Task: structure prediction
Amino acid sequence: MQPLNRNTANISEQPPLKVLQFGEGNFLRGFVDWMIDILNEKTDFNGSVHVIQPINQGMVQLLNKQDGLYHLLLNGIQGGKPSQETRLITCISGGTNPYDDYQAYLKLGESPSLEFIISNTTEAGICFEERDTTPDTLPNSFPGKLTALLYHRFKHFNGAAGKGLNIIPCELIDKNGEILRSTVLEFASHWNLPQEFTTWIKENNVFCNTLVDRIVPGFPRDTIKEIQQHLGFEDNLVVKAEPFHLWVIEAPASVKAAFPAEKAGLQVKFVEDQSPYRTRKVRILNGAHTTLVPVAYLQGLRTVREAVEDPTAGKFIREAIFEEIIPTLDLSKEELEQFANDVIERFQNPFIYHELISIALNSVSKYKVRVLPSVLEYQKRKGQLPNHLLHALGALIVFYRGEWRGDKIPLNDGADVMEFFKNAWKKESTSEVVQTVLAKSDFWGQDLTQVSGMTDAVTDHVNNILKAEQHASL
Result:
C-alpha cells in the first residue's frame, strides 16, 4: 500500500495561499476544507489553505507528512436513499506549528494573496488571556496569536487598507465573530499597540458571525484498515462526515463575492442576520434530540436511528417537531419544514451510531436552552401548552430518577444536579416531585410552577410514565 502524498497521488499544482486556518481537527477538514476543495474545482476561487496548529500538541506534523492530503468519506441518507461518496481533499498546502517556529508563523501574514482567516478552536478558544503580555513572543490564546499575526501584517504592508482580511470563526458560540473582534481589540489595548492598528482592524477587517451544521464523526478507527485497502493509500487522516451541510455567514456582499459558494452549489447562506437560522437549528435539530432522548430511552430504545424508525417514538418526535416546534419559529413554513425533513433524514443515517445516552449529557441545561423556549413561545402563540414537549419534560424528570424497570440509568450531569434529583425523588408524591423540580429556577431560568397549567400537565405525564413502568413489570 502506498503512502499518501502529492507524489504518489500525482498532484503537482498548488494554488496561491488564500486561507489561514486555525485548527486541523476533523470538523474543519470535513466541512470548510471540503468546501474550499469544491470551490477550487468548480469556480475561480483558486486558493490553498495553510493550517495553523492552535495548541502545542496537534496533527500538523502528520498533515505535512501527507502533503496536506486526506480522504473525506460522506455517508448518509439523501432523498430517502443511502448515499456514499469519497473525495480526495487537495486544497491544504501544509501546516505550521507556531510553538516550533513563531517567526515562520508570523511570516505567513506577509502573503499578498491571503484573504481569509478561518478558525475552530473549541468554544473555549475565543477568550482573552491576560498572561499573553506581548506579541513579541508566542501568545497562548488563539485571539492573542491572531492579533499578533494581524499586527505583523499591518506593519508589513504599512497599514494598507486593501490588506485587511475576512475573518470567519466556526466556534460554536453565538455572535462568534463579534466576540473574536472585541477580543482582538482587547489585546491591541492590552499590548499598547498603535491606535492606527486598532483603526485598521475596525475599518479594514471583516469579522463574520457564523453558524455551522454538519455531523463529522471523524477518523473511522474501527474500519480504517479496510478503508485504506479500498483507497489504495495509507491515509492516516481519513475523515467521515454526513452529506448534509449548512454554513450561515453574516457578512457584507464583499465576502460573498470573495467566497463564491453559491456558484459551486454549496449550502452556504450569506445573510444580514444569522439569528433566525441559529434559533431554527437549536430548536429543531438540537431541541428534537433533547426531546427524544428521555422518551425513547424509557421505551427501551438506545440509538437515535432506532428511535426515529420506531413506530411510537418516531411518530412522537415528528409530531413534536412539525406540530409544536415549527409553529413557534419565524422563517417561512416551507424552509422550516425542509430543514425538519433534513433533520429526520440525518437522524436515520445508517452510517452513524449515535447513542441516546451520549446525547443525554447535561440534559437539564439542554432542555432549558433547546426546548423550553419552544414551550413558552407555543403557549404565547396558541394559548395552550404543547403536549409532546411537556411529555418530554415529564420523561426527563423520570429519567433523572436514575433507574427504570430496575435497571440503573448511566446519568451524566453536574454533581449538584444529580444530588438535587436524588433528594427530589424522596418526596412522598409525584406531584411533590414535579413541584420541586419545576420550582428550581436555577435550572430553568424561572419558576415554572408559575406557568399556568404546567405543573398539572407535567404531573399527569409523569404519572402516566410511571404507570407504564409498573404495567410492564407485571
In short: The chain is about 45% helix and 15% strand. The two ends are 59 Å apart (CA to CA). The CA atoms of residues 18 and 308 lie 42 Å apart.
